Amino acid sequence: MSVRVLEGVEYAAEVGYRPLLLDLYLPPVDAAPVVLFVHGGGWQRCTRRDFGHEFAGWRPSPFERIAEAGFAVASVDYRLSGEARYPAQLDDVRAAVGWLRGHGAEHGFDGSRIVAWGESAGAHLAALAALTGPGIAAVVGWYGVYDLAAMPDPGDPASREARLLGAPPGDIPELAAEASPVAHVHSGAPPFQLWHGTADRFVPMAQSERMADALRAAGVPVEFRQVEGADHIWRNAPDVAGIFARSLDFARGVRT
């Protein structure tokens, strides 16, 4: 299957900031559903070209493999915490959802069927976008942050969370809650698949456990998969290819 790639497509332009870009990977089928991929990096680094550390050497790339499976893929940049504070990052992901919903006919995909797939900080943004606005049919979250105030050292002004919010989460509990997906769970939320390594040194697995519990309590379909011995960004994971394949299977099963 031949995948067509459109790099650097502008999906939004905020006054005073750089244009926001996405890369499109298009399968040779009409009306394909869309995977919206949101990269990690602690809200402060990485780009739309980063799928994750353990996938850097994959050929074809993970993006191309998802497209070969019959999805359009939109991998997006968003404003990093050194450029703008929250909620700019959420605004950008929501703008990408809006762009996909409005430009499907132009590029031959179905913008009404979007699966948001994120890793780490990207999982946080994917979940938050799905819970606070329309347009996302399902979420795949890898080792995400879902409750900012429950992260280690909530009073540390140098933490990634503090840089995102502009102050330590412990000092601004209302904003920390507003920026936490767990606080926005509701019964009408789309289904989630959550993954986390049991040996994650940077984002405790309790983050995904807490999110899964909240989703179940609200009656939202959720799969929570623990990866024994895996650290953040899937270091030491015994079967990274299997994690990718099962995440793709979940996306395939989504119907809107």
From TrEMBL:
InterPro entries: AB_hydrolase_fold, BD-FAE-like_dom, GDXG_lipolytic_enzyme
Transmembrane intervals: none
Domain (BD-FAE-like) ranges: 22-215
Gene3D superfamilies referenced in this protein's UniProt entry, alphabetically: alpha/beta hydrolase
UniProt entry tagged with the keyword Endoplasmic reticulum: no
Pfam family, one: BD-FAE
Keyword Hydrolase (UniProt): yes
Protein name: Alpha/beta hydrolase
GO terms, molecular function: hydrolase activity
Keywords: Hydrolase
